[in-house]
Design brief:
disordered N terminus; binds adenosine-5'-triphosphate
């Protein structure tokens, strides 16, 4: 995800109006909002409120956005870390940062902890040989499991995690009482792409003839992040041409650039996989 988020537990200003499409995921996230806002409704009947929710979907489909909107809608502080940060740290640092994060989130409960790219720390153990083993990653993962098990289900802290590689996750993370709720975010269909363009042109100055439907037709397979990118790139292109408003041709040119960027990126990324 592109948003660098706070470890200080700031309030999120993002809400469901910032998210287009993803209707089913929103319904499930709404339920989590209710767990945070009205816990007694559930605990009164003896229910245990889920502790961990896994957001699963391809890159750029709005997992980080959804987590921030959840915190925004519930009006609770948002604490976060990114799994990839820990892989290159000195031994012990990752685990202590995890401990610290949970401690602060509990002090501020009700609150949300968001762990982006959890697969970076939560990759299945045992599949690596000694040569590739990453002690820091393992100790971070172990600390995460300890923290998840260490707080009761009704403490008002809900931990969200995001991944686009659920297949490589350590099964221990998905056990009951840990990340046992899974919410899927899919790439948008054409109608949803129209709606996502709608969200991202809100702040832009557009020429009258801009046709979002055509843009959505021209971008099959694009994620919400790609569309956000196109909209901003189109504004930059129009500004560079000293236009007073952004025209359809600027969006088309922006789309070409985003496609070019994606192609370059996949060339760089694919040999590693
Ligand atoms: P990654 O897997 O790369 O971490 P992600 O799934 O966390 O990605 P986000 O970081 O949430 O994706 O999305 C990046 C940006 O794309 C968002 O900040 C937002 O601008 C835009 N975006 C993604 N999905 C949507 C959506 N459904 N509606 C509106 N905007 C979206």
């Amino acid at each position: 995800a592109t948003i660098r988020v706070s470890e200080k537990g700031q309030k999120s200003h993002i809400n469901f109006n910032d998210i287009a499409g993803l209707k089913e995921a929103k319904v499930e996230v709404m339920e989590v909002v209710d767990f945070l806002k009205n816990p007694e409704k559930y605990t009164k009947l003896g229910a245990k409120i889920p502790k961990g929710v896994m957001l699963i979907g391809p890159p750029g489909t709005g997992k980080t956005l959804m987590a921030k909107a959840l915190a925004g809608e519930a009006g609770v502080p948002f604490f976060s870390m990114s799994g990839s940060e820990f892989v290159e740290m000195f031994v012990g640092v990752g685990a202590s940062r995890v401990r610290d994060l949970f401690k602060r989130a509990k002090e501020k409960a009700p609150s949300i902890i968001f762990i982006d790219e959890i697969d970076a720390v939560g990759r299945s153990r045992g599949k690596v040989n000694a040569f590739q083993a990453n002690d820091e990653r393992e100790s971070t993962l172990n600390q995460l499991l300890t923290e998840l098990d260490g707080f009761g289900p009704n403490t008002g802290v809900i931990v969200l995690a995001a991944t686009n590689r659920p297949d490589i996750l350590d099964r221990a993370l998905l056990r009951p009482g840990r990340f046992d709720r899974h919410i899927y975010l899919e790439l948008p269909n054409k109608q949803e792409r129209i709606e996502i363009f709608g969200v991202h042109i809100r702040g832009l100055k557009l020429a009258k003839k801009v046709n979002i439907e055509e843009l959505a037709t021209l971008s099959p397979g694009f994620s919400g992040a790609d569309i956000a990118n196109i909209c901003n790139e189109a504004a930059l292109i129009a500004a560079r041409k000293k236009k007073k408003a952004i025209e359809q041709e600027d969006f088309i040119e922006a789309r070409e650039r985003v496609v070019g960027g994606l192609e370059r990126k996949s060339k760089i990324i694919s040999p590693k996989e």
